[in-house]
Amino acid sequence: MAAAQSMHSSSIAPPTLPPDARPKRPAPLPVAVAAAEPLPDLAVELRGLTKVYDSAGRMPAKTALDRIDLAIPRGAIFGLLGPNGAGKSTLINILAGLVIKTAGKAIVWGIDIDADARQARAAIGVVPQELNVDAFFTPREMMELQAGLYGVPKAERRTDEILGMLGLAEKADAYARTLSGGMRRRLMVAKAMVHSPPVLVLDEPTAGVDVELRQQLWAQMRALNAAGTTILLTTHYLDEAETLCDRIVSLVEPVTTVPPALSRWRLAVAAPGRLLFRYGPSRTILGPLFTDMQAAGLTIRDVSTEETDLEDIFLRLTGTRGKP
Questions:
Q1: Start-to-end CA span in the chain (Å)
Q2: CA geometry: angle 166, 172, 178, nearest 5 deg
Q3: Angle in degrees, CA 295, 299, 302, rounded to 5
Q4: How many H helices and E strands in the chain?
Q5: Secondary structure of the chain: what % helix, strand, coil (to 5)?
């Protein structure tokens, strides 16, 4: 049976076709290539962002953020200043998805945090002020764990690249407990960069560090920004903000009452955060007023003047302003 099959198979010869009769290979179909989405002009955009913490027990409700409007351009180093309790941490936690806002809109890298919370969180990396590293993990192990939590495929992980960029390549396999304070700070930045976020938030990264480490962290922030990362920096050091930041905004509680120290100036509250002062230009020097305002703890953001006309004076004297 086998021999017969062999003989049968050898007797069949493939047909020979003339060149013009051979089937032609079909032409490749055109492949549709999706155009890359344009980068957003604003890395972070806030519109009327409000956060009110509900009352708990004897603690009354507290407004942490009140209708905040903010625009952070792509590629900037943006400084966020403000005293303790001004709402800086609340704002950061809302962007990171850790706190639920009460009202308003928050957009990270063109993504509304309400419409697509997962993608919005993937577009931001947060470096907290506290050093939360596991003493029994190596930097490489912590980076791999963090990348896994973000769902970064192993083939796309940049562990060695990021550690090298931040000067931690030689300590990649050393236990975190052996790292100096400065190295741990840099490791926190590395962990926030594992998923290649276009926006990086640094919450007081140089608090309590020495001068040399501070300069190192400044250099690394500039390098990250030069590579295309938008940085939002919170700090209490005005010289740091002045040195690093392209733009600066200060979160301050709006004025709703006139401080007693300014009573002699007869100021009025025109709106939350706005004081009205009526004066005669030829009889009043404004320098002492500004000095007293600063001494009272007020921050002057803008000054505008408006000349009173005769109609305004008449309405004020007759008491008919605002009446129908």
A1: 115
A2: 100
A3: 130
A4: 10, 11
A5: 35, 20, 45
Q: Specify the 3-state DSSP secondary structure of 244.
A: helix
Which CATH class, in words, describes the domain spanning 42-250?
alpha beta
Question: Strand, coil or helix: what is 278?
Answer: coil
- Alpha helix locations (H) across the chain? 2-10, 88-96, 117-122, 139-149, 159-165, 181-192, 211-226, 238-244, 287-295, 310-318
Least Cα distance to 209 among 217, 200, 201 occurs for: 217
Note the pLDDT of residue 34.
Answer: 43
State the average pLDDT over residues 288-313: 76
Rounded percentage of the chain residues whose pLDDT exceeds 90:
41
User: Strand (E) positions, the chain?
Assistant: 42-53, 62-73, 77-81, 103-108, 111-112, 124-127, 199-203, 230-234, 247-250, 268-271, 274-276
- Strands laid side by side in the 62-73 sheet: 62-73, 42-53, 103-108, 111-112
- Residue that wins the pLDDT comparison between 116 and 303: 116
Torsion of CA 115, 119, 124, 129, to 10 degrees: 80
Amino acid letter, 56: A
- The four Cα atoms 210, 226, 191, 50 give a dihedral, to 10 degrees, of 90
CB within 8 Å of 225: residues ≥ 6 apart? 75, 77, 231
For the chain, what are the domain ranges?
A: 42-250, 260-318
Q: Which residues pair with 127 in a beta bridge?
A: 202
Q: Worst-scoring range by mean pLDDT, 34-38, 77-81, 202-206, 229-233?
A: 34-38
pLDDT for position 315:
67
What is the distance between the alpha carbons of residues 120 and 111, in angstroms, rounded to a whole number?
Answer: 6
| Residue 126 bridge partners (DSSP) | 201
